[in-house]
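Tutorial, part two.
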Amino acid sequence: MRQIDMQFPACFRKRRVKTRDRLTRRDLPLSLMDDSGSVVPQGNTELKRSSLGRFRFTLQGYNQKAVQHQDSEENGPGRGTAPMLNSELIANLQASALAALLESSHTPHKLAAYHGALTPQELDAPQVEIEALAHGAALHDLGWLRRVDVRGADRFRWLSGMVTNTVNDLFPNTGAWNLVLDAQGHIQGDLTVWRGGEEQSPQRRSPANPQKGRNGATKNEEDPLLGTPFAGESGLELEIAADQREKLLAHLNKFIVMDDVELVPVSEEKVGEAGSETCVGLTGTLAPEVLERVGLPALVTPMTRSTVEWNGWDVRILRGFGTLAPHYEFWLPSAGLAKLWSCLRTGGATPVGCAAVEAFRVAEGIPVYGIDIVERDLPQETAQMRALHFSKGCYLGQEIVERIRSRGNVHRHLRPLELAGPVPARGAELMLEDGTVAGAITSAAELPLQSGTRVFALGMIRAEAEASNQALRYKAGDDAGTAGILAAPPRLAM
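Running the prediction step on this input gives:
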């Protein structure tokens, strides 16, 4: 069985070659089904909180324990109908703390299922929200994120062997985005590893008398591969989307055998209960100015974090990755959410819903697991090299990653696109001028900017089609459009 195979390195097994086309139809997008079995169109996936019991949810591509594929044996795994949420998950799917706060304040909003939680879909006009994300400061819900502590004496060594990016050489209060693979190198999910502050120890991790350069400076003193000066104790934490947590924890726990390691969820968002916590985000070029007005630090470097006391609450501030604007996260007790939300709004931030956040994500070219990246994909096919570290040592699936790096390349890549034409459906084929299939759209979104509407997408493109340097064409209903691969993040003019 596949579960048993995953326990052994790939070198002990014969490689199983999959013959199906890797550009076949991906899992269906998010939709809702009413009790009669009718599918509500994707554009109408919002629902009032009171209507939750009347719908069954279908979520795209998550391919995890929280989602059950209804595949027949003759179709094989991953080829049947869209994955359906089981009844237990439907019962547990809840509105985020922010959604509950807005409901109690009678703020008009609709809820949408996003990353495994119900969150406000739209809080202002689409153009206002997109402009805030691109050129202002946008305040939005991150109540779908979950935190997991990695505890135990072996936590650094063990976790380094389970994820694709560096763990041991993270500096205190920094983080790194990672992919989680199986033994065949296929992507099981993604997460961010954060390292806490370090208590210094007398044992140095770098030489006590380092070699000096010609100008008197220490050689490699800023080389992150040297690690921190002291081998002190510091915490390790995983940040995972709610729709991936169950699957990833089950996957990771299988490999804790003789290790002193424990994975402890610490961010169960139970609205109204003491001790619960939540997370909100602030995104935009003016976000640092808003933070200054409310007395919070604006972290300069991406993938760093800090903890401060603010109005009697311990607030954990993280700066994430972004290509078009700074992205900040604020973790705090749910009881302090109303105060923080109000102060950030007073400081100049504009509340936005998940629809605008999702559209901006597509414009930034940042993929999401379950939509742009699925379980059959290999790391280099995603073109997300910021998630890979080639000199960290062995980890699960590393043999395949290294084989691809050293012996050749993959035959397709996930690429950011800008489209001239209507917004295509997810899965729409990209074609060359002669009609040859060149790839498929994985995500697409329209950005209604003041300077004019622009359409962006992510797509999986065949390497030979990309090398031909031909225009890519697609269809959206009866209309057609063209797509161009972006070599750099787009400039969103005001």
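Residues 1-92 form one domain. In part three we will examine how such features are distributed along the chain.
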